[in-house]
Amino acid sequence: MKIKANLISGRTADQGAHLEAKTHKGYFDACAYCELNSADLERLGVSEGDSLKVTTEFGEVVVFAKANNGNPEGLAFIPMGPWANAVLNPDTHGCGMPGFKGVPAEIEATEEKPLEMKALMRKYLED
Amino acid sequence: MSEILIKNASVCDPTQGINCEAMDICIRDGKIVDSVSGNAKVIDAEGKLTMAGGFDGHTHSAGKINVGRFMNPNDARKNLVPGLSGQVARTEKTRAQVGYNTPNTYAIGYRYAKLGYTTICEAAIPLLAARHTHEEFKEIPILDKMGLSLFGSNWQVMEYIRDKEPEKLAAYIAWGLKASRGYGVKIVNPGGGEAWGWGRNVSGLYDPVPNFDVTPAEILMGLAEANERLQLPHSVHVHCNNLGKPGNYATTIETMKLFENVKPSRDRQALHVTHVQFNAYAGTSWRDFETGAPMVADYVNGADHLTFDLGQVIFGPAVTMTADGPVEYANARMLHEKWSNQDIELEDASGVVPLFYSPKSFVNAVQWAIGLELALLVKDPWKIMFTTDSPNGGSFVNYPEAFTYLMSAKRREEVISGFSKMALDRMVLPGIDRELDFYELAVMTRSAQSKMYSMPEKGNLKVGSDADIAIYDLLPGQVDPSTEYAKVKKAFSGAAYTLKGGEIVVKDGEIEATPKGKTYWVNAKVPESIDAAMQKDIDLKFRKYYTVSKANYMVEDSYIQKPVEIDTEGVF
Amino acid sequence: MPVIKDAVCSLCGSLCDDITVTVEDNKITKVENACILGHSKFVGMFEHDRIETPMIRKDGELVPVSYEEAIEAAAKILVNSRRTLSYGWCSTSCEAVSGAIQLAEETGSVIDSTANVCHGPSALAAQEKGSPSASLGEIKNRADVIVFWGCNPVHAHPRHMSRYSSFSKGFFTEKGRKGRTMVVIDVRKTDTAKLADNYVEIEQGSDLLLITALRSIVNGHEDVIPETVAGVPKAEIIALAETLKNAKFVCIFFGMGVTQSRSKYKNGDAVSSLISDLNQHTKAVMIGMRGHYNVTGFGQVATWETGFPMAIDFARGYPYYNPGETGANDLLVREEPDAAIIAAADAGAHFPQKAVRHLAKIPVIQIDPYANPTTEIADVVIPAAVVGIEAEGTAYRMDAISLRMKKLIDSKFKTDEEIVKDLTAKVRELKRGA
């Protein structure tokens, strides 16, 4: 079951508290997830902690599912960081700022596990 | 021990009453001395016009100017005065340069030096943001610097005046100068900065500041009293209320009159009024707007307690930047221009708005005329400091252009011939024949400042003074500034030599060396007990109202490059 | 056991300067007044993954080398490069920034700050319409209506509301939160929104529409507004406009929701215009919630030294500025740089994949105290002292007020200032030799 969502990224306190500890598991926990309204998680057939694959025009990434009923249905949030950036829009539309908010995404449940930070970065070296 | 001998200079030094006389100047270790040995390096001035380095006593060149740079990136590419503006790649000796009205810091240093200027005074330092000014000072090469600290809408100041505590007020001024490493007391639209905190303004000298129960007149008198009690080297430096409003010449004269009974504690004026052009407007609206310069000049001619500077307009793009927040908002709305504002908690306001002065606009034409009318109608040049309130009236790189207006009626006529009839009806300039000579120009750009700021070692070529010298490619006996104004402009646009502290920094209009300049600031001594009482009051302000700790407020020593501390003793 | 008061926290743009730090045996063991972010900065640093030694990547792996070797390798990269991107410089002092700009000028590089992915659009907005702003104490002492538009201070600037805004008490605002109306405008109900008196939820990407609608009402043209704008009913928009107009002093704090969403810098442009319109009725200002503690400082230093706040290209020998062309992400997406220095910021973590892919291909010099995603793709790594703890220097708060950060403990690490100086000297030496 795939759902379409509008993907945004942004700061969280936990992400910020790990700005200088990005090699720690705490950073992984703070950033490698996608927040959706519970109704959307239900549609996907997942519970919190299950893996989701998020795919956009620009890439795909596997992250954990998290519920946030502050999100309207159809709005997905991934904290700023390498997991979010795997799928966000690099185009700056002629003004310098990439597209960190408002990227159309497809989300589905997956058995794959989210990559740890180093493994995710290593993929860039392999490309 | 480095010695220089300047031979065959045609010296113009009004401080010593020397008017284009052939002289030699001896320099040792950065100072002018009586004589030098045979080992001295010789500069043959070849009869050229030689003055002390120029002293710009009111320029916006460090601090608020950064807002101007930031919001006007288009200014960076402007090259309206080739050689003194635009983008210039880095060289062996110089950093990269940009800009016209809001040049980068390196360009400011190089370009003033090319004009033969060696000292600048930043017109307005907000106390809380003073560190920023000094950071910029550090990156301005060559020039000696100082700045005027803002006090005119400051909560502690207003409270002390309201509560009639003149001694604590003086202690606060002394502390504020130390905190900001300022040189003097700046007052902008007194009380208006606080009113602007609520989007309002004060309408004149007797309009009370909302919530503080003081009037602008009381603020002015309170600060003047403190200034003289502390025996500060400069008088209070005042940007009058109602700047930019038709009819404001009355406020200006009223303000000047207020100071008639203020006794200066030093050998200088009791009051300096700044950029009076913007405050010499008659009429009741823009429709019947006309010059108020004759009335102001009239008063000034009969007064002996004040000095003022022009705020001369230069046609073309300019950037207005001032602590007069309400004026800037009004400018932006009226001219449909972009608007920046930066109010500073407990202290003052500010705004920045780019604009364009056009000879085709009758208002701008009259503004241009007013500056010159003031310079030419006031008889005594020692009362006048030449400025454009750079870049409010226009960039300082246009000073040489402006000098031709002062020295040549013919040049003025050329410009005036492009004005509309409506403009001509509103000004008196066309009827003025007077032309300033080099001597009077030197007074307005050097010697007057030496006295105004109580800096005997600046603005003149006396033995003992700093060897800050400008040699211009002009032979005073052989050039007629009245008709050969193009030659005059060219010569003042790029000195044959500029020396700073005895070092050649400019030769044939090009930068030769970029030594670091000094920063002058005033440390006024106040009795321990009064200071302690004042500290208690400001401790409360920091605890409850400021958003920074008192411990972090004062500008630290490390920010002041080559500091020169001027000590004064308060009288209590 | 020294207890240092009034230390300046070097993490976020709030730049709190009331931090009390206890130092024992050259370690910070206790910190008071800091939020979770500050706590991580001061105390957490002793648990973080510090880069202990300079390293060079050899055969795919980073191996320890001497400082001199690392400087030489880095300088060689710069000297051999035809198009270097120098990026970051925001979690460091103004003094280091100044050195970095000089290095960029001498090597003809492009130098850009984290504003490229944060408030760069706010700079563009200010360049269109101006920046009608005030120092934070003006808000504390006067503001009775506070709007958080597209920002989430509970998470990004945790002490902002108590020190400067919603909960602060000042001269004219003795009632604190009770005397204020707090409005949050966002696309989802964030933790900050939960604290609002008025939460306005908008359709993601439609900020410009709502700002324009507000302007129309403020300027007396509510008749042109449709029944719904940005997903918000007209009546609600009118009520919001009334709240703003009838304030004694309104401040709009704005963040990434404004700068990163569709319309990007045009959103900030519109907010600036709205502020100007509001000042016809009341007193209004706007303040950008700057993320890194000294991104504002980079902007200030760059502006006074080069005329431009960011995205500065020195290839011509003089500063050239054209965001969209000279921004860090612009250059990387065009695959233009053949080398990069990334200092005091983490492009590896915070740039989109296409940009990072290019960085992974070119030689990258990293200068940072901590190992992070950029380290994974860096070729020369030089560890630096932590500014604000192991090194002093100047930083600018989000409202452009500067403070001096203190040195609280000693460290073996060179400061960013020193590293840049050494790098510049080496570059000059190599160029002379060539």
Write a brief caption for the model.
The complex is a heterotrimer of chains A (127), B (572) and C (434). Chain A is built from five helices and six strands.
Features:
heterotrimer, A: 127 residues, alpha/beta, Barwin-like endoglucanases, 6-stranded mixed beta sheet, 6 strands, B: alpha/beta, 9-stranded mixed beta sheet, 8-stranded parallel beta sheet, 24 strands, 31% helix, 22% strand
Structure description:
The complex is a heterotrimer of chains A (127), B (572) and C (434). Chain A has one domain: Barwin-like endoglucanases (Beta Barrel). The model of chain A has no long low-confidence stretch (mean pLDDT 96). With 127 residues, chain A is α/β, with parallel strands linked by helices. Chain A is 26% helix and 34% strand. The radius of gyration of chain A is 14 Å and the shape is globular. The mean pLDDT of chain B is 98. With 572 residues, chain B is of the alpha/beta class. Chain B is 31% helix and 22% strand. In chain B, the strands form five sheets. In chain B, strands 1, 2, 3, 4, 5, 19, 20, 21 and 22 form a nine-stranded mixed beta sheet that branches. An eight-stranded parallel beta sheet of chain B has the order 6-7-8-9-10-11-14-18, sandwiched between helices. Chain B is built from 17 helices and 24 strands. Chain C is α/β, with parallel strands linked by helices and 434 residues long. Chain C has two domains: 194 residues, Rossmann fold, CATH 3.40.50; 169 residues, Dimethylsulfoxide Reductase, domain 2, CATH 3.40.228.10. In chain C, 36% of the residues lie in helices and 22% in strands. Chain C contains 17 helices and 22 strands. Chain C has a nine-stranded mixed beta sheet with strand order 5-4-20-19-18-6-7-16-17. In chain C, helix 2 crosses helix 17 and helix 4 packs across helix 11. Chains in contact: A-C, B-C. The interface between B and C is large, with 61 and 67 residues. Strand 16 of chain B pairs parallel with strand 8 of chain C, so a sheet runs across the interface.
